[in-house]
Here is the input.
Amino acid sequence: MVTETMVRRGTASMAKSMGLMCFADSGLGKLTEGERPVTRTGDYSDVVVVDADGRIIPWQRVARFDAKEMRRTRREIVDKLFTFLLNMQETELEALRDHRRSETSKWDSPKEDAGLKKQMEVLASGIVESARQPAATDSTKKC
Here is the structure.
């Protein structure tokens, strides 16, 4: 008999595998490469970036991705997720997951995301559908 605990453990293992192979191995993982700024405050409020025009930008406000990089990274992640999900039943993917499992052994255990759960609850309650009803609009406005 498959228990809820067994399902949760298997799902947690799958989530970690997807996190590793679809996110950490993507452009997002490259964000950790390169030189890291030194911070004495621990929150980087003492770090700034000086751009080519001489503007001083606080570290927390610096965009790490431009729109083109984000689009490329998003596309890469969606392609990896699609490939992973499409091949979930393949023995080759299972072998790769088993081979790389040790890389996630020290990761925190996943937990359900409250924001996503809330979106699901809202949709299930019908609130989203009723909110999508066409509003009275000015016929002269163009989209």
